[in-house]
């Protein structure tokens, strides 16, 4: 039981440290992960002067899928 509590404590400290040291949020880079024909990803453009941006969602299931891009307004 003590080993379990120690392991959970170490994991919590590592998680808190990674959150504290994380950089500021920004638009996600374009990228996707497809493993054996399954997967996808999200791509966001930089912000426009009006605060809107373009987001593209990519999804593949068993090799069939595609990308859907749309404008997100504030």
UniProtKB/TrEMBL annotation:
<feature type="signal peptide">
    <location>
        <begin position="1"/>
        <end position="27"/>
    </location>
</feature>
<protein>
    <recommendedName>
        <fullName>Secreted protein</fullName>
    </recommendedName>
</protein>
<keyword id="KW-0732">Signal</keyword>
């Amino acid at each position: 039981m003590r080993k379990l509590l120690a392991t959970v404590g170490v994991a919590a400290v590592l998680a808190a440290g990674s959150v504290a040291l994380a950089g500021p949020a920004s638009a996600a880079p374009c990228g996707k992960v497809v493993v054996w024909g399954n997967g996808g990803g999200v791509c966001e453009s930089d912000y426009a002067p009006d605060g809107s941006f373009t987001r593209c969602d990519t999804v593949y299931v068993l090799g069939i899928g595609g990308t859907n891009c749309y404008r997100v307004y504030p």
